[in-house]
Amino acid sequence: MSHYLQELIRGYKAGIPQGIFSVCSANGFVLESLLEFAQRSDQVALVEATSNQVNQFGGYTGMKPKDFAQFVWDLAAKVGFPLEKVILGGDHLGPNPWRGEPAAAAMAKAEVLVREYVQGGFTKIHLDASMHLGDDGDPGRPLEPRIIAQRTALLCQAAERAYGELLQENPKAVAPVYIIGTEVPAPGGTQGDTGLSVTRPEDFHTTVQVTKEAFEKLGLAAAWERVVGVVVQPGVEFGDQAVHEYDREQARELTKELEKYPRLVFEGHSTDYQQPEALKQMVEDGVVILKVGPELTFALREALFLLEHMEQQIPALAGAELSRLQATMEEIMLAEPANWAPYYQGSPAELEFARKYSLSDRIRYYWPHPQAQAAVARLLTNLNSVDLPLPLLSQYLPRQYAKVRAGALTKRAEDLIKDRIAEVYEKYLGATKPA
Length: 435
Prior knowledge:
Blueprint: H1 4-13, E1 20-24, H2 28-41, E2 45-50, H3 65-79, E3 86-93, H4 103-119, E4 124-127, H5 145-169, E5 177-181, H6 201-217, H7 221-224, E6 227-232, E7 237-238, E8 243-244, H8 248-255, E9 265-268, H9 276-284, E10 287-292, H10 294-313, H11 325-335, H12 348-357, H13 370-384, H14 390-396, H15 398-405, H16 413-432
Parallel strand pairs: 1-2, 1-10, 2-3, 3-4, 4-5, 5-6, 6-9, 9-10
Antiparallel strand pairs: 7-8
């Protein structure tokens, strides 16, 4: 049985301008909104976790691969979304979380990581061994492509062994498909609004060729047939306050090279905040898989902050215990700066602004914090205890106001938040769905 992505890519190569967007997030609001949106629009839901988010040690979410899979499946059951239409993916699976360790130790952990993802039900596997490891020499020099390819093949070998074991338990288990390559910069995002370069065609060809050779050397020719995409840099990225817009002319030299590969497409990372027409052009140009993450939690943060402004002005809540949401988030981030301090720069006022409003959205790492959870819960409880005044809804969430007036949306706070997030999905569906 073919993987959904293989069928989609066959259609694309046959002339159907279609793609798919991949949601890389572990946020409950984001994922529940996705599953409800996919239900309404009759789409599959592609959800991915990264090696830093979710790994055999828990990652920064505290979840192992099977935990994350169950988290998504539970949300699907909650909203009545068919589990067979959920595709789970692993992003940047490799030694990145342990890049400071010697190569042998880091790769051993990376192989366990990949194995647990496959055994956990993840069928879209991005293998990424592009980073320098502890004993690889000068980290300022690019890692030799053949070393990257050899390590990628070892990771694939671990994945294939795990799939073989899975088949013994479930003979109908779908074989994983693979994504290779990496974007620039490395996973984790930019550290400023710096320039970037489109992947050179020769680098793309080298990645494909040396990885294919490494797979074949390990007897992974059958797995190579399931390599469906290559991560490249088509010229999109975002920083704290700037978005590098897609320019199809600058990317044309790269994208036309896909014609030489009848089974391969590009996967684009950091496509967040791109204009709808740019996303559509990317799909047309071969960037068939569009990854999005921070833009979704950015939309979540916008909705929560706007709802707090409403909370502060509702007469029925005068004298009530308010959420202090923004103040609480600032207190948490100042007390625990590890997830934002290396990425934000500037004066104290500029740093305070970035903590709240940066497009990089490093605040997303703090929503799981117990104090943040308590503040959000208080906000939702307060708003759901009153009849939200329509004038405030019009002032702060005008698009949701219009839907409420039309009877298409309730005034329940959770529904308002999820609808605000779903506006991002609408943009991506417009770019990826066949006309």
